[in-house]
Specification:
Elements: E1 2-3, H1 21-35, E2 44-45, H2 51-60, E3 68-71, H3 75-80, H4 91-94, H5 103-108, E4 110-111, E5 114-115, E6 118-119, E7 123-130, H6 131-136, E8 140-141, E9 144-145, H7 151-165, E10 168-171, H8 179-189, H9 207-221, H10 231-239, E11 243-249, H11 253-260, E12 270-273, E13 284-287, E14 289-292, H12 299-314, H13 316-320, H14 329-332, H15 335-338, H16 349-352, E15 353-354, H17 362-379, H18 383-399
Parallel strand pairs: 1-2, 10-11, 13-15
Antiparallel strand pairs: 3-14, 4-5, 6-14, 7-11, 7-12, 7-13, 8-9
Helix pairs in contact: 7-9, 8-9, 17-18
Length: 400
């Protein structure tokens, strides 16, 4: 099994008590290894940043993992090359009820009329909020944080936070992983725009693109956010009480809840909010994790792989404890799911979840955007020059 999510050596087999992405998924895998007769699972945890390069190398070498995790946005690339198994006709026999998947979940694993994996979640960017800082700044009403409704109002709120507490308004990973890209994408979608059209035309150096970028850079320019923070640093700043808001995903909700309960952690009063609408239309970046098997897998190994997929599907409520949104309607309707911590605070996220049009070049496009956006906020490259360069490179990728 190939996966990311981080390593957890002492996850055990109790899927109901593990915490955090790495340990929850590993406990599910360990339980499958222990409970599925005749099946042994060797986990190959890989760093998130290098994962797809390693998976591609494994496919190229003819040794892909029997089961591996993927994001939905990678299906066109892998399925388009014939690398993934189409499994629609094998789900029922494996004990997987695809009718229990939400329509969006089914769409996430579908490509050209076939099903190429078993969905595990919806995940999206949220606003993780330090309510003590917001309270000190006068930005709490009826027990919920007051979030901005425009870029100008966001600056007003940021000034209130800085004046009241001396802390930053917003933290995020702008220097490493593509959290900043996802921020810009969301703010473009909120203007009913996108980075490329369905017919493959790049549309990045636009008024919407500039508005999205400048909504963020204005925070840097005023000293209300630090563009040099990477993922670990931005997360630590939030836990240390040094930022009112951290932009990060659903995958850390249970981790931050646990951290906020610790006496030695500065974050005490933790809240999870839907990504605010700063322009015309609600939108936030979202994706799905899914599990796939290689098209080349046959016989007993293929049957075993499908049993593992069914086992993971059966444990969807355990994975949902991370903070990710469930793909199974029966789980969403359950009392266990609805009573998960903070779940009622971001119920609107599913309705505003967005993504780019499907593309076999998604990974390369994301890399281009990440590089050019980081050039803006880390090296002061002019916004229009960076967006123009990004548009040119993305168009070249779309034309290949």
């Amino acid at each position: 099994m190939g996966r990311f999510f981080g390593a957890c050596e002492d996850a055990g087999t109790d899927t109901t008590t593990s915490a955090g992405e790495a340990c929850i998924i590993q406990s599910i895998i360990n339980a499958a290894d222990a409970e599925l007769d005749g099946i042994s699972i060797n986990t190959l945890p890989t760093d998130w940043g290098n994962y797809y390069d390693q998976i591609k190398a494994a496919y190229a070498g003819g040794t892909p993992p029997d089961v591996h995790v993927m994001h939905r946005h990678r299906i066109p690339e892998f399925a388009g090359l014939g690398a993934l198994a189409e499994i629609s006709g094998e789900l029922e026999a494996a004990g997987i009820d695809a009718s229990d998947w939400s329509p969006a979940a089914l769409d996430a694993v579908s490509y050209n009329g076939g099903i190429y994996g078993v969905p595990m979640d919806f995940h999206a960017n949220l606003w993780h909020v330090n309510m003590d800082i917001m309270e000190a700044a006068g930005l709490v009403e009826n027990g919920a944080p007051v979030l901005p409704t425009s870029p100008a109002e966001m600056m007003e709120h940021a000034a209130m936070v800085k004046e009241a507490t001396g802390q930053d308004y917003l933290a995020a990973d702008f220097a490493q992983f593509p959290i900043g890209v996802r921020l810009v994408l969301a703010l473009m979608w909120q203007q009913n725009a996108n980075i490329f059209t369905d017919d493959g035309t790049a549309t990045i150096n636009t008024e919407a693109g500039k508005n999205a970028v400048e909504a963020i850079t204005q925070l840097f320019d005023a000293g209300y956010a630090n563009p040099q923070l990477n993922y670990a640093d931005s997360q630590q700043a939030f836990l240390n009480g040094e930022a009112a808001v951290l932009v990060n995903g659903t995958w850390v909700v249970d981790f931050y809840s646990a951290e906020a309960a610790k006496e030695e952690v500065a974050l005490d009063n933790y809240y999870v909010a839907d990504f605010p609408t700063l322009f015309e239309t609600g939108a936030t970046w979202a994706d799905s994790h899914m599990w796939a098997i290689p098209a080349s897998l046959e016989g007993a190994e293929r049957e075993a792989a499908l049993k593992v997929l069914a086992f993971i599907n059966d444990h969807n409520i355990d994975w949902a404890r991370t903070g990710h949104m469930s793909v199974r309607q029966s789980v969403v309707d359950s009392e266990a799911y609805q009573s998960l911590p903070h779940r009622d605070e971001y119920t609107g996220t599913a309705a505003i979840a967005r993504d780019t049009p499907p593309s076999e070049r998604y990974g390369a496009i994301q890399d281009v955007l990440n590089r050019e956006l980081q050039a803006i906020w880390l090296t002061d490259k002019p916004v229009e020059a960076a967006l123009q360069d990004a548009e040119f490179e993305v168009q070249d990728l779309l034309d290949r």
